[in-house]
Amino acid sequence: MRQAHALTLEEVAASLKVRRATVGAWESGRTEPRPPEREAYERLLEQLAVLYPAPESSGVPQKDRAVPQ
Length: 69
Description:
The chain is mostly helical. It is built from three helices and no strands. It has helices at about 10-15, 20-30, 35-50. The protein is globular, with a radius of gyration of 13 Å.
């Protein structure tokens, strides 16, 4: 989602006050964010989803779309 909205790792890391490598590790699945960063990252992703919703033509019914955790 970050890349789809032209945000760099540096921009996300700065907004969450974490290192660039930390965000990279979250995205690759090597680690998961822990509180309080988890909540801040979740809010960021939720806002991106609101501002830039997925196109309806994605082929996946709305109710079957995975929700990031």
